Amino acid sequence: KQEVTQIPAALSVPEGENLVLNCSFTDSAIYNLQWFRQDPGKGLTSLLLIQSSQREQTSGRLNASLDKSSGRSTLYIAASQPGDSATYLCAVKDSNSGYALNFGKGTSLLVTP
Amino acid sequence: KAGVTQTPRYLIKTRGQQVTLSCSPISGHRSVSWYQQTPGQGLQFLFEYFSETQRNKGNFPGRFSGRQFSNSRSEMNVSTLELGDSALYLCASSSGTGLNSPLHFGNGTRLTVT
């Protein structure tokens, strides 16, 4: 059974810092990995999707990388802003779960002014 | 383009009652998935429907059921509610035609069971 782990569980940084969020998964036979953002009391907003054949994806200040063989992904946020404060979740889709996503428990990020 | 819409946003029910939650996907999306989010377990997959057929099911008891209509709208039902069913229920839609089609989530229905 796929296990997805996110470290750290919580992170607090001053505005302007670059930061890295980590995600690891136990079964490397994945179709894709997706990063989401969740604001308090809200649903999930898709940030980036990396297909199994890709190494990274970029959107604005966000860059996500995927190392399938080692079962790891990182989300890099450049020049963090208070508006980036949210919970970041990674999820993988693999052959055992069909079309379902397996989620990590998330990293709660606080960017202080 | 309108996003995924879930109704109602909040629900308070008593143990033993049943509840129905509704989800309208993004126009043109044929796949609807449901997830349960709790502080302890995180996000867990309930089921997925594609073109009115259940295509995948998570590890939840039979009290949890769902269906999808011809217009792709979906409902999920929970019967004989238990305190542990208190959670944020999230619906997500996708085109469903490829393994790499991204999921788009609604804002969820917050269910409280007392």
Q: Give helix and strand order of chain A, one letter per element, not per position.
A: EEEEEEEEEEE
Describe the largest sheet of chain B.
7 strands, mixed
Shape of chain A: globular
Helix content of chain A: under 10%
Question: How helix-rich are the residues of chain B, as a percent range?
Answer: under 10%
Structural class of chain B: mainly beta
The shape of chain B, in one word, is: globular
Q: What proportion strand of chain A? A: over 45%
- Taking all residues together, what is the mean pLDDT of chain B? 94
Radius of gyration of chain B: 13 Å
Treating each run of at least 4 consecutive H or I residues as one helix, how many helices of chain A? 0
Poorly predicted segments of chain B: none
Beta-strand percentage range of chain B: over 45%
Give me the number of helical elements of chain B. Answer: 0
Number of strands of chain A: 11
Q: Report Rg of chain A.
A: 13 Å
Biggest sheet of chain A, open or closed, and with what strands and sense?
Answer: 6 strands, mixed
> What is the multimeric organization of the chains shown?
heterodimer
Structural class of chain A: mainly beta
Show the largest interface. Answer: A-B, 25 and 27 residues
Q: What's the SSE pattern of chain B?
A: EEEEEEEEEEE
Supply the key terms.
heterodimer, A: 113 residues, mainly beta, six-stranded mixed β-sheet, five-stranded antiparallel β-sheet, globular, B: 114 residues, seven-stranded mixed β-sheet, four-stranded antiparallel β-sheet, 11 strands
In short:
Chain A is an all-beta fold and 113 residues long.
Give your account of this protein's structure.
The complex is a heterodimer of chains A (113) and B (114). Chain A is mainly beta and 113 residues long. Chain A contains no helices and eleven strands. In chain A, strands 2, 4, 5, 9, 10 and 11 form a six-stranded mixed sheet that branches. The radius of gyration of chain A is 13 Å and the shape is globular. Chain B has 114 residues and is an all-beta fold. Chain B contains no helices and eleven strands. The model of chain B has no long low-confidence stretch (mean pLDDT 94).
